[in-house]
Please model this.
Amino acid sequence: MSIANPKLLEDTSDTRLSILRAARELIQTRSYLGLSFQELADRVGIRKASLYHHFPSKEALGIAVLERSIHQFDDWVGQLGGAPQVQLQAYILMFRDVLGAGKRVCPGGALGPGWDSIEPGLQQAVRQMRQRQIDWLTVVIGQIKRTGSKANATPAQIAAEVFAVCQGALLSARITGRASDFNEALAPLIVQLHLPALP
Model:
């Protein structure tokens, strides 16, 4: 299934959106492998069999959750303004505040622990989600003057580092339940990139 499948983005029925929102929450808090169609149906208030009307398989549901996340990221990027440093700080704050450091992990990152158990189509969707963010980060970081230990690194290398540190910081904060642990994990990178301190 293609990550760019427009049909998955066109169907915006209330029930389908409710399923996608609840599924994302469960994936972020219970993991993809911990996602139960029965629990999902109970949360949405529909019969389990009705889920299959909207999503023929758990893989199709997982891909749709990631497609929606990519679409939301693209919308978010489209609304960003300001200097590259401000945009990069906003990206870090999006991880902390929107994804919910201390309470949840990234929907794509939530699929990492069971990587060998998930379907190839879903693996591809996670890779595309990561690549979309890496591509954007590479452009933004390429506009920032780098000094010190980051002076010789390419923008793509730093983009991969920022993505990985944000993912790891979310996981660490999830384990402790403290958003402050996210801030502590990002603090050295923020200093190295000369970004404004996190509020």
